[in-house]
Design brief:
- This protein has 200 residues and is an all-alpha fold.
- The chain has one domain: Hypothetical protein, domain 2 (Endonuclease III, domain 1, Orthogonal Bundle), CATH 1.10.340.30.
- The chain contains 12 helices and 2 strands; from the N terminus they run αααααααααβααβα.
- A two-stranded parallel ribbon has the order 1-2.
- Helix 3 packs antiparallel against helix 8.
- The longest helix is centred in the middle third of the chain and has 18 residues.
Amino acid sequence: MPDQKNVLKKRCAWNTTDPIYLNYHDNEWGRPQYDSRALFEMLCLEGMQAGLSWISILRRRDHYREAFDGFDPERVVHYSSEKIDQLMQDSGIIRNRRKIEAIVTNAAGFLEIEKQQPFSDYLWTFVGKKPIIHHYDRHEDIPASNAVSGIMSKDLKKRGFKFVGETICYAFMQATGMVNDHETGCFYYSQINSESGMVN
């Protein structure tokens, strides 16, 4: 049975009482992530979400990690057409060939960037290497994309990445704490700013 005190905390309006969502909101979403491999995984998963609800991906995340070798780019980049055919039979993931192929393509893009700099450094450069703190009181005021996500999307596409439109990139930025889009009334808003050493 969930902790009633925890359930009653004021959270962002998009959140639900689903335990998976509660855990994601309270422990991951909006928390700055600097690990290159974790960032690659999240970028791929955000691409998998296109046209679907995020909870549908969250519920499959553990299986995605198993199916895609922990999102290890050095392994994923070598996936053959036979491997993709095999993944297309896996009911534990979204069986969309273009999306599966995009993860393989993106692994190649990741490795190319890593030849020059850590993937994390590359991505965080788009936001000046520190979280952007927004001040949205209502969920309805939070945009689906912005100028920065547009620039990130354009650059990733130029490097061959797939399923990285500006809306996907913005959702990715929100998830990985490049922007703090927790509503100001959410208990986690100030906590993240404090942990990031940022002023509200």
